[in-house]
């Protein structure tokens, strides 16, 4: 059936600010769906309150509404536009819940809006635990024994009937919020209370816990002709008991028998067909008994999910793009396969490679947090790696994590205490994968590890083989490793750093040079979705060690953009927004734009975004070889956060041109001593400071600059390791902790300006002129990380004299640092005195917020300035903000109820929302302003 031509205008509901459990995978899905609908000539309106995303950018939709996700906001849009249909499946649980609320209020009916992509009744069936259970029973799909409970008494009765261990699953919640396992009767009452309170309908499912069973996910698409295809089968490395968002996952499934897979596939299709007549995407989760392959259904989500983004990147099949077209009436056989460009979308991808996803945790930001993983998701991001084998992809994923690991072990960070290792295997945290390897190295038998972890034996055998390879390698020296064995090591995912560590007394560069002598080179394979059965047209690549290289370097002038890796606190989606605009600007300037990144949730890793995408770790060895193959004009590092910036020195040493501000000047801004000397020379005030490399030096510096002092390591993002201390004892503890976690780092000690306000500026410099993008005043005082502060644009309480000084210092610093591109400066303001705290010559988390508030494509402008294609005077910049914009941080403390929620110099927020006000009398602003008064008085 061709598309429904009566649909001329569609509203897409976004997912709001990033929180744990609902991250930038919905930015990717929403952006892709919007562009897909625009291709059909449909007017697209988007509502979302997140300023840091591409989804809320004019390049994605015709009308963007940065409004709170409420029914009042929905009605405001429906009154302005003649909306024909609403697509609520691209914004996660938030969008679905809002769609139901609007439906219950009669909004869709009142404005004659059709819900597409899902059936509202289907949402009710899948989210209401009892309805879902009964439906599965009716269609003959197995489910765990369970009972619904709407009260404490009903829950107690259900537990008595089913028996322990149990799992509690609240209805209508996201990422397992409020859920958990109960192993003992004594713990049940508290767990039941948590679940009932977490559910908006005060309803939980009390269910038999199938701990240790295997877990699988299937991603499906269905059209109006009831055709259903399976896009991807994803197997969880970790068994049931760990939220799938916190689990390592693998595609395709590695340990399924064909019979079990066919049964699971048939059940998934039956389930999707049974929940309504909608056309679109769906995610189904199953559990499989490892003893007899009995299958039970866990849940079905009639929307794109976290796994949909992963499956899209894993297969090259753009699920959200096709789902959006199915929602407006197309059938699968009428749509084109986006990879081959010659076959239809009515096919199931076939992979000749292996995908591994590893979640990224940030427990260091939540001191005292319970790190044990369970039903409630705790990961803040994820990485994906592609390899020819499971073990190669696993090692590449470990290299992608941005946790300082060079692969799976063999890097000097192994645990050696057997009791601690075995406890970690039985009580999984984010590091369990590494501790499995540690256990094998200490000689723990495979069966003992399997019993402790309940991880399938096949995966454990793969990890155990690494230990045998490392024992073999230690027999050699670098100059006599047989070529075949060297090749095997590289095919198993070993980095040059790991090989150097295992050999001892050799460097990474020496290993690199030796393998080049032996002709062992990284080659690139195309992600083609059809195992090379049909020619692929899309330049989407991963690396491995074989003979044939499928990535042919063109003779065009090229720019490489380095991405920001996994999302984590302090480095989130705002840097992906920056990278995407960098790619678009480079293409507009006539360059071949090449992207390197490993985050499956993001828009930058959409194969349609760059001219060429390398889905690779942003890890030195991988980046170096891509540069050697492509020979770009230069590399952009200032858009990808600290991940990309850390590469700058090595790029400089290799003779690679850094586009924009030079490494020398970026390093000058990071080096507190040299930077303070520059401030002194420019006659710009700054807090008294000192630099220390030991606790003894730190005590001496602190007594010179005067307490209270701000203690922090150099070269970090998101306030990592920062603290404010008021005496020698606290200072000594802080410094010892920092040097333990970041050995060799210089410790910066600044006099802390108490009762000071904080403000910041962002600017662009082309070497001659400086344009102040925006100046913001923080609600919270100095001492609370800027990422955790509510910021108001433009300033509301700073005198004109103070603002003039901020502008003067910004211009002076931009020119003195010879900035080409972006510069973020943070200030402390005390009375009429303005002090510079720090300057960052790179993209910041505030630039997307300012760009959205003023409706100016600042990253695009900055990139063209960096490339030297334009000067600032070439642009006509017209700001459209009337009134004020407020950036408000959003936290995920509900995932860590046991931690201290007090804010300080180390960032803890996971996302942000934007709100516009007309004037300073707005009640929302007055409430924030009262908080500011309280903060300043409390100091």
Describe, in plain words, how this protein is organized in 3D.
- The protein is an alpha+beta fold.
- Among the domains are: 7-115, Rossmann fold (3-Layer(aba) Sandwich); 144-206, 2-Layer Sandwich (Dna Ligase, domain 1), CATH 3.30.1490; 220-348, ATP-grasp fold, B domain (D-amino Acid Aminotransferase, Chain A, domain 1, 2-Layer Sandwich); 542-650, Rossmann fold; 687-749, Dna Ligase, domain 1 (2-Layer Sandwich); 755-929, D-amino Acid Aminotransferase, Chain A, domain 1 (2-Layer Sandwich), CATH 3.30.470.20.
- It contains 31 helices and 34 strands.
- The strands form 6 sheets. Strands 14-13-10-11-12-15-16 form a 7-stranded antiparallel sheet, sandwiched between helices. A 7-stranded mixed sheet has the order 17-18-21-20-19-22-23, with helices on both faces.
- Helix 1 crosses helix 10 (306-315), helix 13 (418-426) packs across helix 14 (432-441) and helix 15 (446-453) packs across helix 16.
- The longest helix has 17 residues, at 258-274.
- The protein is globular and about 80 Å long.
- The model has no long low-confidence stretch (mean pLDDT 90).
Q: What's this, in brief?
A:
GO terms for molecular function: ATP binding; carbamoyl-phosphate synthase (ammonia) activity; carbamoyl-phosphate synthase (glutamine-hydrolyzing) activity; metal ion binding. With 939 residues, the protein is an alpha+beta fold.
